[in-house]
Design brief:
- It holds the Pfam family polyprenyl_synt.
- The chain is mostly helical.
- It is built from 17 helices and 2 strands.
- The protein has a single domain, classed as Orthogonal Bundle (Farnesyl Diphosphate Synthase), CATH 1.10.600.10.
- It has a two-stranded antiparallel sheet.
- Strand 1 and strand 2 form a beta hairpin.
- The protein is globular.
C-alpha cells in the first residue's frame, strides 16, 4: 500500500513551510544567501516538519495548528538542513537529493559557514518561541549531532563495534532531532508530561527506523533514486546495519573493511556480498521492529482521538515502505 499520500494531506501546511523557509534563512551576504537558496530549492519530502505538524494536529485534536507549531516545523527543517551541509563536507559528497552539494558549488569554507549560519538562525528562531522547555529540548539536538559525527569519525572501518554502538550513533545523528521535535510539538500543545514523553519515544523509534532504512538504501538503491552515489557509507568506512549483519557470515567482507577497500573493485564486490547475504533482511527486520514499536506507542495514545493519530501511524508505514 502506498502511504505517500500522507504528505498530500499536509499540502497546505508544507507549502506554507516552503514559502517561509526562504525568508527565514535569507542572509545579507550574497554568497551565504545563494548557498541558502540552493539548499532549500533542492526540495525533499520535508519528512521532519511533516511529523511535527502531525503531532500538533493529533495533540491539539484539530486541523488548525498554532503558529508556534508551524515555526517549530520550520526550525526542525533548518536544523536538519544545516546538519546535511556539514555531513556532505565530512563525507565529501558531490551530490545530495540529485543536485550538487554546497561545498562542490562554492567551497568547503562557504559550506561550513553556511551550515553554521543555519544553526545560528535556527537557534534565534527557537529562542523566539518564548518556551524555555521547548528551547531546552531542541537545543540539545545540535550537541547530539556533533557527538554523533565524532563517534562516527572514531569508528571508521572498525568491524569490531557492536550493533548497540551503531544504534547509539544513529540516535545522535538522526533520531535525536525527530524525537526532540515530536516532544517539542507536544509541549506546545500543552498536553501532560507522560504524553509528551510518549511522543518523544515515538519520534525516537521512527528516527532509528528511518536511519536503518537509509543505510539499507545506500546498498540496494540506485544512484538516481538515492540522489547520491550508492555505497557512499561503505566507501567512507561508515559501517551500518546491513554491513554488520553480513560480517557475521562473511570473512571476505571483514578483510576488505580491514584493508579499507584498497582495491578499486572492492566496493562493488562488497555490495554484491551484502546483497547475497542475510544482512539486508536482518536490517529490514530491525527497521520494522522500530516502526512497530513507534506504532504501538501511537496506538496507546490514540484513545484521545484515533482519527488524528492515524496520520502518525501512516507516517511509520510510509517510512517502512521505502524498502519494499
Amino acid at each position: 500500500m502506498d502511504n505517500s499520500h500522507i504528505f498530500s494531506l499536509l499540502e497546505d501546511d508544507l507549502n506554507n513551510l516552503n514559502y517561509n523557509l526562504k525568508s527565514m534563512v535569507g542572509a545579507r551576504h550574497p554568497i551565504l544567501n545563494a548557498a541558502s537558496e540552493h539548499l532549500f530549492s533542492a526540495g525533499g519530502k520535508r519528512l521532519r516538519p511533516a511529523i511535527v505538524i502531525l503531532i500538533a494536529k493529533a495533540t491539539l485534536n484539530k486541523n488548525n495548528i498554532l503558529s508556534s507549531h508551524q515555526r517549530l516545523a520550520e526550525i526542525t527543517e533548518i536544523i536538519h538542513t544545516a546538519s546535511l551541509v556539514h555531513d556532505d563536507v565530512i563525507d565529501e559528497c558531490i551530490t545530495r537529493r540529485g543536485v550538487n552539494t554546497v561545498h562542490s558549488i562554492f567551497s568547503t569554507k562557504v559550506a561550513v559557514l553556511a551550515g553554521d549560519f543555519l544553526f545560528a538562525q535556527s537557534s534565534w528562531y527557537l529562542a523566539n518561541l518564548n518556551n524555555l522547555n521547548v528551547v531546552t529540548t531542541i537545543s540539545k539536538v545540535i550537541t547530539d549531532f556533533a557527538e554523533g559525527e565524532v563517534r562516527q569519525g572514531l569508528i571508521h572501518f572498525d568491524p569490531t563495534i557492536s550493533i548497540d554502538e551503531y544504534i547509539e550513533k544513529s540516535f545522535y545523528k538522526t533520531a535525536s532531532l525527530i524525537a526532540a521535535s515530536c516532544k517539542g510539538s507536544a509541549m506546545l500543545s500543552e498536553i501532560n508530561y507522560h504524553q509528551e514523553n510518549q511522543c518523544y519515544l515515538y519520534g525516537k523509534h521512527l528516527g532509528l527506523a528511518y536511519q536503518i532504512i537509509d543505510d539499507i538504501l545506500d546498498i540496494i538503491s540506485s544512484s538516481s533514486n538515492l540522489g547520491k552515489p550508492i555505497g557512499s557509507d561503505l566507501k567512507n568506512g561508515n559501517l551500518t546495519a546491513p554491513i554488520f549483519f553480513t560480517l557475521i557470515e562473511s570473512a571476505e567482507l571483514n578483510n576488505m573493511i580491514n584493508s579499507e577497500f584498497e582495491n578499486e573493485s572492492d566496493i562493488k564486490k562488497a555490495i554484491t556480498i551484502i546483497k547475497s547475504s542475510n544482512g539486508i533482511k536482518k536490517a529490514k527486520d530491525l527497521a520494522e521492529e522500530h516502526i512497530q514499536t513507534a506504532i504501538h506507542i501511537i496506538n496507546y495514545l490514540c484513545h484521545i482521538n484515533q482519527d488524528k493519530y492515524h496520520g502518525l501511524v501512516l507516517m511509520g508505514q510510509y517510512i517502512l515502505q521505502r524498502i519494499y
